[in-house]
Amino acid sequence: MDVVEPLLIDPGSGSPDTMGRIRRVFIESLHLNLREQDLRYEAKLDESVGLDSVAVLEFVTALEMEFGIQFEPEMLTIDLVRNMKELASYVDERVARRCPSREPA
Amino acid sequence: MISEHLREVAGRYPDQLAIVDGGQRISFDELLQRVQAVRGWLRGTLDPKPGDVIAGSLDNSWQFVACLFAVSELGCAFMPCNPQWRAAELREIAGRLGFRGAIVEPRLTAEWNQIPDVILNDRVLTADCLPVRHDSDGAAAPAAVEAVAEHAPALYLATSGSTGVPRLVPRSHRNLIANAENVAATLEIGPRRRFLSVVPFHYANGFNNSLIMPLLSGATLVMLRQFNPSACAELVHREQVDTVFGSPFIYASLADRDPSLLSSLEWCFSAGGRIRSSVVQDWRSRFGLTVRQLYGMSEAGVIALDRAVATPVFSIGEYAGELVRGVEVIVLGADGRCLERDEIGELAVRSQAVMSGYFGEPELSRSRFHNGFFRTGDLGCRDSAGQVHLIGRVGRVINIAGVKVDPVEVERVVEMLPNVASCHVDAVLNGRGGEVVRARVVPRDGFQVTRGEVIEQCRRHLAEYKFPRVIEFLEGAPITIAGKIPRRGAPDAAPGEEPPGAS
Amino acid sequence: MRVTNPHLAAPEANPAALSAAKADPMPLVALPLVTLNDLLWLLYLYPIRLLARFLPRWSLYAIGKLSDPIVQFHARRRKARAVPWIAEACHTTPRDAARIASQSLSNNMFRTLDELLMLRPSFDKMLCCTFIAGMQHLENAIAGGKGVVLTVGHFCATRVCLRYLASKGYAVLSVHNQRPSNKAEGRLGRFLQPHFIRLQKLAYTDHVYLQDPDCSLKIMGRLRRGGLVVLQADGRGATRMVEQVFLGVPWLVATGIYEIVRLLDCAVVPMLCLGRSTGFRIRFDPMLAIRPAPSREAFMSANLPGFLAALEKQIIENPEEWTLWNHF
Fold it and tell me: Domain tally for chain A?
């Protein structure tokens, strides 16, 4: 499986908590030797950190485990995964849908 | 006992055609003679004792039927093996059950000869050696028929679980006869019916519905050893088959056949998965036939089938039909209480056709029964008319504040620890109106496991929300009369109730 | 007699060099203008493809049979390299191994003709299935609800069988390599490559390419819908590889498919497809028992040998139908 385009990380709207957790999962699930703060906008994850297709899958399944959600089949596209903003807001939406009320009774 | 029933049917309809297998047309009377011959042959070659298990790795054929009844007349149990099993799988099953001998298709001898450690090569007999007549020139009288208790296993079926490790389901004579009689009564099966026997006999669907039930009702079995769509359609036409118990793939494969070949068909049932509505539609428009759903399982026989005259029936899931005679079904909620009509929960079944428990797995078997009802693991409901609708599999999912946790996943992780013998995971009330994941750990004899080890193990492999918040340690797996595993030091729970959660 | 991997005997021998070659194909100026291989592909892509649109199948096969001597001649060196390997792997005589090598080559040619026929809209009606075994294994796996990965080897009838399954309502997503290795190509061959790929795209509608960045996500989506995906267990040409012994020789196994199985917990059903469109046989084997393991490495060592052993057995029992003997 060939190397994909490096991911672009893009700050913006979408819960900062979620984005932070996504970054952490990204680093941990792919066993990258990077610190979280090094994943910055305009820092294209370089050729040395290029991801292959299976690595993308590992990242996505790690996200599902971390947030306790499941991606809908039609949302499994590389474009969603590459766009941090959209990814974070999608994750937030799935989390909200999963738990209508987070407060204990 | 199953052979007693066969004899009774043969006594009533001796000349009725029992089996059509390739060029062979075998009446009930002829079948009995072959059974007697095979019985004598097996007695002479294997010298089995009552209670032994004899395996058969055979295609759908008269040999399969003759071996089944001959083995049963020797007081033994028959284990139909999938002809596609490799030596490794055969070794595993043979190791668990212990085979006195086996009768196999000639092409399979190479595979069976690779496991002399569990079955000696000279105890592996080939199907082409089956006699059709008892050798009356020899001095010996025909081997006697052994009496057998109705609860003794006549058969062992292997269910293919999702883990790929098969469970062994014993089917007693009582189970088989009850299932056969109930289904035959529900569908009014009698001697004039002609069944297509194409689903392999080593599968519950094939065995129950295309072998035992029709044969013990006096119907004819038209056999097809190797499935291919055109040969199948031609056979149906040539033998004027009127009843098929098939599977979604079979109906999909036959959907484009010439309608004139299938004009004799009247009753078509499908089991073993969801059949596509496009296939059902094709059958209706091209052949004018309704392919009906059948709901059953290896452990329980046929539970429900669709006999509706007016179809399609509206269903929120999949319409499985009305219950077969003699079968009771309740719907269980997550907490074990019985649900009302139209409420969705786990279907549990009770009937004479339900097994008593998996072979060699008493704890698992106990956990699958609730007040005498067998938990199917299927999610569904019963509507106001009592008809069954299937939604999906239960999968033992725990719901913690809206998050799904698969207890089997947690169990496997904990069981990876070297000192853990087994682990059972469920959900308990946390005393604050919510639920938490609980793990009950049984350490290996003589070994210790600490809370810290279990937590560390979970941390390494699981997301945080799956961690068990309550961890209990049990000694062995003591079972109370009620069949529940009690917590150490806690009063025994009443049957049907979860023990109160501890924090 | 120690048999080495015929592939390893070739110049671009070791794995490192292989990846390097893949990433960096030989520059155009270094290639010969035309090779015999290129001419055969040219014939295939143009006149034969045109003929395949309207000629009856038997006459297309007759053309194939007539060209068999040319194909055999063209592959003579590869066949010679394959014979000792086949003899050892299948425990047979060199003479029989030579027969197997030739037969495998012929069968492969009929496979390529069937692929041209697949472009016809009426191809589904031309399919003649003579035998299906083990449907229940497939149905049980589907009933598990997490999707099914069908593992196949490079057998001739695989595409035909997949087409047949699709026509029965069992659509299967297949994974292709966009750049099949083509060592003997000349400049003409390099030029023809995209045309060949376009032809593949027309013939196989339900597929993804290994080189697609979202290849795995598409596979995941299909499995999550409870659908079927087919993957070649003896595939190579990937970035993630593990060396194993396969058919008696060192083999770089592409582990991507096993990684997907590990991550998605789907069912795995081996499928064997034999014959050709005039008469083919399908066999589904029992679901493979997957041993869970805490890490990727542990998963591979626990499960990979079993997966490969199952496939080896299929190949040894049907060597004439496996197409990779003469591939090197």
Answer: 1
